[in-house]
Amino acid sequence: MSSLTLSDIVGSSAETLKRNAAGNLSFIRSIAQRMKLLALNALIEAAHAGEKGAGFSIVAQEVRTVSAEVDRVASALGLNLSSEIDQLTDAVGRLAEETRAARCVDLALNAVELIDRNLYERTCDVRWWATDAAVVSCGADPSAAAVAYATERLGVILSAYTVYLDLWLCDLDGRVLANGRPETYPGVVGSQIGDEPWFRQARALPNGDAFSVADIRNEPHLGGAQVATYCASVRAEGRADGPALGVLAIHFDWQPQARAIVQGIRLGPGERERTRVMLLDARDRVIACSNGGGDLTEVFRLRTEGRPHGHYRDGAGHLVAFHETPGYETYRGLGWRGVIAQRIGEGWTR
Q1: Any residues with CB less than 8 A from the CB of 312 and at least 6 apart, and which?
Q2: 162 within domain boundaries
Q3: Is residue 80 in a domain?
Q4: Which of 87, 119, 131, 178 has the fewest CB atoms within 10 Å, counting from its CB?
């Protein structure tokens, strides 16, 4: 498949037209120059002929005038034609640039919409599982039998929902009572996570219909993996208005899921090598990147100028397009943005 754009085709055609026009105008000027020389020779001969060459001198003078006019018209035509072709080329180039930028903004929206729809499902999962009878029973009375049953139930859920690393049931003091993968993460149960910001936020949820979510982070109890943690209240009898018994925390396996989205954005031929598709959090941290970044240490300073979406050229002349999360259903998002950064020329260097 050809990677030529409309701008490339028009630019090439315009250059060909300019060369052809320049060649034709050069030929016209050549004829005019020959007419001038002919007129000059005729004037010389007329002068040698004296009175007999007077009439011929008038004709020669007229030929000289006409040749000068032809030369002037040819020069003006060349300038005007060249100017018009340049204007056409510039206009098409601007149109192609605007179209490319608008497409990149749409791709940025596509990236952040895909992740938000994915994460919306996580908010549904955590509120549903917090009403599971085994989870509620363990929250009310964390006996050895209740913990064992809750652990079994959480493991069954994880076997069907492979996008999660682990599920934790915590009491209201922040102690982990049970987790779904004790063999993989044996040090989780008994851990004290009461001081974690995500737990404090979840502890304050008003009812069972509410949920909380934390920014992407590395979770030390899960081998330092990047997680998106969603929480809901575990309440008496599984009722939304029941007294709080504990907190259910589900840890979404962020890195592979996010990478699949940013690397799956459809780019044209030759674009992928010079394009970074990124997800940024509200602090402009790169939380996912198509070319292998997104280790939570890079900050991409986005110039939004208060706009929810748009595009601009950075200091190196590279295109940067962005779109803020619009949210999805009851999930309003965390102020994240999809970003497309497209480099001029070959490849992208961070």
Answers
A1: 303, 320
A2: yes
A3: yes
A4: 87
Q: Where residue 140 sits, what CATH number does that domain have?
A: 3.30.450.20
Domain residues for 71? Answer: 6-98
Alpha helix stretches (DSSP H) within the chain = 6-49, 54-129, 133-140, 144-160, 197-203, 254-264
Query: pTM to 2 decimals?
Result: 0.75
**pLDDT tens-place string over residues 19-77:** 655 555 565 666 556 656 655 665 565 565 555 545 555 555 655 665 566 666 556 55
Residue 1 has pLDDT above 50, yes or no: no
Coil vs helix vs strand at 315: coil
Token pair of 124 as six digits: 């549904």
Percentage of the chain with pLDDT > 70?
A: 71
Position 137 pLDDT exceeds 90: yes
The verdict on 70 and 139 lying in the same domain is no
DSSP string covering 117-182 = HHHHHHHHHHHHHTT-HHHHHHHH---HHHHHHHHHHHHHHHHH-TTEEEEEEEETTSBEEEES-T
Q: In terms of Cα–Cα distance, which of 202, 194, 130 is closest to 139?
A: 130
Q: How many domains does the chain have?
A: 2
Residue 198: exposure state from Cβ atoms within 10 A (0-12, 13-18, ≥19): buried
Give the pLDDT score at 112. Answer: 95
Of 215, 237, 257, the position where a domain reaches its end is: 257
| Alpha carbon distance 186, 92 (integer Å) | 63
- Percent of the chain whose pLDDT exceeds 90: 61
